[in-house]
Design a protein that fits this description.
Radius of gyration: 16 Å
Order of helices and strands: EHEEHHHEEEHEEH
Largest sheet: 8 strands, mixed
Number of helices: 6
CATH class: Mainly Beta
CATH topology: Archaeosine Trna-guanine Transglycosylase, Chain: A, domain 4
Distance between the termini: 16 Å
Length: 161
């Protein structure tokens, strides 16, 4: 199965169904099943976003939230946390920061990105919106060594169980 590594908390946001669009600086022609892998590390600049994300998700007790635990080094680091289907890769054409919206080009139509989704990605024009469907969190995250770009995950443990 193909896989992609995301920093936390984005991998967990996908697994929770809160993030259905992954943004990247590069396009892919791949469509099909995709495993979501949580990176083994969480850079400082990412940890600094956790309080903002907690506010967006309306988490009242931030000290007890999953974001807090991710920020402090506990969580599914270095593990596959979900599977999904990558169904489209759309170029981002415009961004309206005033109205907190972005638009991805679907050819004759536009895909509107707003709400929490807008805050969980980088919708700078020239980037790409990877549309994820059929997101299924794993009952128990599976350890795996991640890589950059799309990589092949030997999901032997999933096939057995």
């Amino acid at each position: 199965m193909k896989a992609i590594t995301l920093y936390e908390p984005w991998a967990t946001l996908v697994a929770m169904g809160e993030k259905k669009i992954e943004t990247r600086s590069w396009a892919t022609s791949y469509r099909g099943p995709l495993a979501i892998h949580a990176a083994a590390s969480m850079p400082k600049w990412v940890r600094e976003l956790c309080p903002k994300f907690a506010k967006i998700l309306k988490i009242k007790d931030y000290n007890g939230s999953w974001l807090y635990y991710l920020e402090h080094g506990t969580g599914p680091f270095g593990k596959v946390v979900a599977t999904c289907d990558l169904v489209a890769c759309l170029p981002i054409r415009t961004k309206d920061e005033l109205n907190e919206m972005a638009y991805a080009d679907m050819g004759e139509n536009w895909y509107v990105i707003d709400g929490n989704e807008y805050h969980f990605g980088d919708y700078t024009p020239g980037r790409y919106a990877w549309i994820l469907k059929n997101i299924k969190p794993l009952p128990e995250p599976i350890p795996a060594k991640g890589m950059q770009r799309i990589w092949n995950w030997n999901n032997e443990r999933m096939c057995k169980g």
